[in-house]
Amino acid sequence: MMPTCPLCASTDHAPYHRDARRDYRRCRHCALVFVPAHQRLGPAEEKAVYDQHENSPDDPGYRRFLSRLFEPLAAKLSPGARGLDFGAGPGPTLSVMFEEVGHPMAIYDAFYAPDTAALERSYDFITSTEVVEHLFAPGAELERLLGLLAPGGWLGLMTKRVPPSVEAFAGWHYILDPTHVCFFDEASFRWLAERWQLTVSFPAGDVVLLQKT
């Protein structure tokens, strides 16, 4: 059976690139580039990679990195807007940054904060930084997150977008991380916006803001 695109579920995809470790296919419908399921890491191997991350709210450099999403999204929020940081990782930081400016935050992470009660509430905004490239089923996960947003709510994502050529993709550092299995094109986010009737903007090269209309 032909595998489906993990974002849009189309079977219309083709080989895009191959390196010594993995194959990469590109969807002709939503432009997502993805690694076939049989070449993904298992849960224990995946977590072993994440355990090496040393992110912390006490790290000024990490805060500067996250500010590329924090600043444009915070400027759009009403005072006291409630948020969820999805995929907060072992050192939640973005949630701390929003709490510091008056936004109550919940966190969820499949490995480090797996309390699914956080996924049963409604939010004014949801953030997910350097997460969607790790998702095995980004279409289903993003649909779930959009379902948690109140009308007019914001979904802020940070992930590097696919380079403009196969040659650039082949030399791209982002594909060296074995936990990165889905690579979004700008067209992928535009497809998502059209599919779910969202407004979309790109305030930075690796940031996208989607508003539920």
Automatic annotation (TrEMBL):
Protein name, as recorded: Methyltransferase
Q: Which UniProt keywords apply?
A: Methyltransferase, Transferase
**What would be one Pfam family of this protein?**
Methyltransf_23
Q: Which GO terms describe its biological process?
A: methylation
Please provide, alphabetically and separated by semicolons, the GO molecular function terms listed in this UniProt record. Answer: methyltransferase activity
